[in-house]
Write the structure tokens for this entry.
Amino acid sequence: MPEITFILPAGKEQTCTAREGLSLMEVALQNGVPGIIAECNGSAACATCHIIVDDALASTLDPISEHENDMLDFTAAPRAPGSRLSCQIKVDGRLDGAAIRIPAEM
Amino acid sequence: MGVQATIEETSSAVPVISDVTFAELLSDPYPTFKRARELAAVVRIAAANIIIATRYEDIMAMERDAETFSSVNPQSLVNRVMGHTLMRKDGEAHARERKAVEPALRPGAVKSCWAPKLEAIFDGVMAGFETNGEADLFTALAAPMAGRALADVLGFLDVDWQTMALWSQSLIDGAGNYSGDPEISRKATEAARGVEEAIDLALAYHRENPNMSVLSSMIHADDPHTLDQIYANIKVAVGGGLNEPRDSILTLVLGLLENPDQLERVKADTNLWPVAFEESVRWISPIGMYPRRVTRDVVLSGVQLRAGDQIGLCVGAANRDDSRFEDPDRFNVFREKKSHLAFGAGPHFCAGTWVARHMVGRLVVPRLFERLKNLRLRDRTDVRIQGWVFRGPTTLPVVWDV
């Protein structure tokens, strides 16, 4: 199973193993990662599961849909170049060893 | 952090609150909500003959477990009044219909299409009373604004706001007509027919002219709605898309007028308007409660629930849960930022959220304070706030300098 590290705003790290097929949001919720609220539970309707990925990972993931792109303008923390909605990323081998940053809310 | 909710298999019965009248619930449900929250995860309210959940974490847990806490209810009055709407479906059946509706309501659609249209509606509504120096903002502003906006967003042609308001209220009353009052049933049936006729009139246009409206989105989707699905889901939108923006306009105005220090700070930093809007719907949530049906015997945070139980998820109570929100009864734009449940949670998260956020929090209320100089309450004792399933100011008399 892919191993994923969440990096919290204060710098603390939380590493967990993730079942393939789950969304990154579901993995975060299962592991009680703070900052991932996911009000709409994966419908890409609420923008409360905002994460930031680094350039290398961003380029290997499937491209952002137009809708996700829209929603990312409405996250609580300001949008960054690697911003994604974690509910829209399915866990697979590409995420093994990934470091996922949880943005600090303003 | 709040209390952690649990869904497990051990037990204790549902406690009852039996000394609160229905009239008390309507005028001020919050003391009862507080008692219920402190008593147990789930409490029966005798006066309304309903079991309610009132804690933030419990409601979040329920909304993340749609298999146990289902939206499907064949006996639902909503189904009888409106047909088989997406609001009473789960899983794939719900997701398919939701997907066909959503393009009309996304942030991108709000920005490119609805923002200018809403602005034109707002200017028209303001022109009707701006020079009067006094008004009841319910009838002068909030009701026409919300009604006209909803007609436009849905894609109705030539339906005035008074008709929208009548249909909306009649459908809501019909969906809550537990006593089977024949007059309420008749009005609901009449409203349902009116909505169907308005849909029939508009569909030909939307077929020929694809656009951003909900009706157009429904028929031009990859997986388009059938006519019955259109009828049912538009009725839900009419019933559930008018009073929320209407009431939240008034609640936000009221919260700010009662707290002039906060108003001054918000006016000085326009980035605070969206925050003020979120606080207003946390403080007085326009939809205070919605139902879920328990599908298996289960224990929720220590209380035994049985398969078939109907539970009212009191988001209006959860949004004042003091284990999550400090001094929760107070309107405070500057409180610690935390997510609330005013738009629900889970797959049924309010589809109109982004239209509402723009319309109320970025357009109507900020512009109102810009345009009406020295806006103030005429007399605080004239303000009426009513309801518990749906709650908001029912009259908001104000004066300003002209």
Summary: Helices of chain A lie at 24-30, 55-60, 66-71. Chain A touches chain B at residues 29, 37, 39-43, 45-46, 48, 66-67, 70-71, 73-74, 76, 105 (CB under 8 Å).
